[in-house]
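Priority: medium. Attachment 1 of 2:
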């Protein structure tokens, strides 16, 4: 499916973020990881009448053995089958390879993330700017990362280093790259918190907002207490407008299936229908909980004039 034929309620990340900032809520960027789980995310958002983002990262595509075209195809098919009317974004998360971004744009993703955060600042700026020029030419939003957001499970990223985002560097980065959204490192991490405690450096977040008007993204939303998320979203001059949630969804799925080990996409699709159904119901409940009790996006679909 091409960008030109996407449903009217499938919007760019920039459009969604603008509405979220005005309404002082965040939009959940949910990673179903497996294509059958896309349905659970869509159903939850529709029930909650909430705008939402459906995403997958380059490493998830590789780990679960899915192509951007396959993921996008299932997303658009389920949007139609489930009769989804709430605003939606199809987002490519952490990606380091330009060809994967090209594949995603061609497949109908409306937002992509270029992650060159492990590179020196000048190189990160150059790579992110190139990605922005390409994506914008195709009507697609671009997210980038400055600082390094740690990980505990190496599913979304392959580095557990953490380097907080410098507000002054953020100002230069945004001005020179023209990206639409910026993932900032302010204390959260990808994966399950087992040793360190989740935290958010609110002073750093406010300093970044003071120096740049770009839409801010919080990665590592799984496991972060609700009060932290709400405070980060509702900062006086505008806070986080997109929160990434992946691990909590997979934990819900595996728990409902009585499993501990991750599967490939093909393995999940091979499950008996009744078994898969119980797993999807668990994910749907988790997404509903995040929308209602963490993000503040419940019943905000009407904010969008589609």
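Attachment 2 of 2:
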């Amino acid at each position: 499916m091409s960008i030109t034929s996407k449903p009217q309620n499938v919007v760019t990340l920039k459009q969604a973020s603008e509405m979220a900032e005005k309404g002082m809520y965040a939009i959940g960027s949910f990673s179903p990881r497996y294509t059958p789980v896309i349905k659970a995310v869509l159903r939850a958002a529709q029930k909650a009448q909430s705008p939402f983002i459906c995403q997958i990262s380059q490493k998830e595509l590789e780990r679960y053995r899915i192509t951007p075209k396959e993921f996008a195809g299932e997303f658009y098919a389920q949007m139609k089958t489930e009769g989804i009317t709430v605003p939606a974004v199809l987002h490519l998360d952490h990606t380091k390879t330009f060809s994967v971004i090209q594949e995603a744009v061609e497949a109908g993703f409306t937002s992509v993330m270029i992650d060159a955060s492990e590179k020196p600042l000048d190189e990160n700026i150059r790579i992110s700017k190139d990605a922005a020029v390409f994506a914008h030419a195709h009507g697609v939003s671009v997210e980038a990362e400055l600082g390094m957001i740690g990980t505990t499970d190496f599913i979304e990223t392959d580095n557990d280093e953490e380097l907080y985002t410098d507000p002054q560097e953020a100002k230069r980065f945004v001005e020179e790259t023209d990206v639409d959204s910026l993932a900032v490192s302010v204390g959260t991490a990808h994966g399950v918190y087992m040793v360190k405690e989740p935290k958010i450096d609110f002073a750093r977040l406010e300093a970044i907002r003071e120096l740049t008007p770009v839409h801010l993204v919080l990665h590592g939303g799984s496991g972060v207490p609700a009060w932290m998320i709400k405070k980060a979203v509702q900062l006086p001059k505008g806070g986080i407008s997109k929160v990434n949630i992946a691990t909590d969804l997979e934990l819900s799925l595996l728990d409902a299936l009585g499993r501990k080990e991750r599967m490939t996409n093909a393995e999940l699709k091979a499950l008996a229908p009744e078994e898969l159904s119980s797993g999807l119901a668990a994910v749907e409940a988790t997404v509903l909980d995040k929308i209602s009790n963490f993000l503040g996006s419940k019943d905000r679909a009407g904010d969008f004039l589609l």
